[in-house]
Amino acid sequence: xxxxxxxxxxxxxxxxxxxxxxxxxxxxxxxxxxxxxxxxxxxxxxxxxxxxxxxxxxxxxxxxxxxxxxxxxxxxxxxxxxxxxxxxxxxxxxxxxxxxxxxxxxxxxxxxxxxxxxxxxxxxxxxxxx
Length: 130
Prior knowledge:
single chain; alpha+beta; 5 helices
């Protein structure tokens, strides 16, 4: 995969992110930043009876980070928190048609933010600073 370019799908999700923006009154929020590359993602979840009913995100970072977080929101919508929690960065990259090796960490930041939001949901808090 060395020297691989972004797929059309990745570029589309990077240029036209789905479910982007802050959510009014989320059930749970997960915030993660990567000190190495400076990317950060906040994932907002609305959970009812253990099902993710709505999800939005805000990502500051490269095209791969935005595309990965965006497609992840579509992948987890309507799933249980358990199903969502099990998703891997490989699954996200596969959904995008693959990511260059040096950008694989970008798909992890959305996963980490989502898992942190689910952890907060399970603890009964909205976000870590509550």
